[in-house]
Design brief:
Order of helices and strands: EHEHEHEHEHHHHHH
Number of strands: 5
Mean pLDDT: 90
CATH architecture of the largest domain: 3-Layer(aba) Sandwich
Helix content: 40-55%
Shape: globular
Radius of gyration: 17 Å
CATH topology of the largest domain: Rossmann fold
Length: about 210
């Protein structure tokens, strides 16, 4: 039996995943978490064969939680299940140690297949993501500007490009407005830009947001 922890801040998503997996004979959801910190506490005190982790979590985001999991339990496989398209986060999470990346629009059978493959110690990568990874490996001096950003800065860039204000970003990420403003300033500096409009134009052109 593959024992699963689901970490997602939306109860309806957790319920939906549980319903899908309840129809299988070899996969069981044994715990849930609505925040990254709650997920970590359960991981340290219980045994799981696989973690299904969202990126958008209150407080510390899924990327940060993933890195902590891999630093302390490197053999625990993590499948990222996110609302964000592959172009935005897939390469970053695989670099950080995730065993696979699926969007929440994926077919339910694909989710089950991904879990089974990852539980066997393999990676689950869609054909489109494999293509993306191959292009990332090609030698190039033209590194994209957003590759200079930390994971937190990158997340804030994407939220800015979606038209969210500093107050809205602060609330979503459980940060202070001052902290968000500091990150925004670093994003602008690293990317050589001066306004949210420039950041948004860049993000749209680079297909980081839809």
């Amino acid at each position: 039996m593959i024992k699963i922890l689901i970490a997602d801040d939306h109860g309806i998503i957790r319920k939906g995943i549980k319903q899908i997996l309840s129809r299988t004979s070899d996969i069981e959801v044994t715990a849930e978490a609505s925040t990254g910190q709650e997920a970590l506490e359960k991981i340290w005190t219980s045994h799981f064969d696989l973690v299904i982790l969202d990126i958008s979590l209150p407080g510390r985001n899924g990327l940060e939680i993933l890195k902590q999991i891999k630093s302390q339990k490197p053999k625990l496989p993590v499948l990222i299940l996110s609302m964000y398209p592959e172009e935005q986060y897939a390469v970053r999470v695989l670099r950080a140690g995730a065993s696979g990346y699926l969007t929440k629009e994926s077919d339910k059978n694909e989710l089950v297949e991904a879990i089974r493959r990852i539980a066997e110690g393999k990676k689950y990568i869609t054909p489109s993501l494999a293509e993306k990874l191959a292009s990332e490996l090609e030698p190039s001096n033209d590194k994209a500007l957003h590759e200079r950003l930390s994971d937190r800065e990158y997340h804030i860039l994407c939220l800015i490009a979606k038209g969210k204000s500093s107050n809205e970003i602060a609330e979503e990420l459980a940060l202070s407005v001052k902290t968000v403003s500091t990150h925004r300033a670093r994003v602008l500096e690293k990317m050589g830009m001066k306004s949210n409009a420039e950041l948004t134009y860049y993000a749209v052109q680079s297909k980081l947001v839809e």
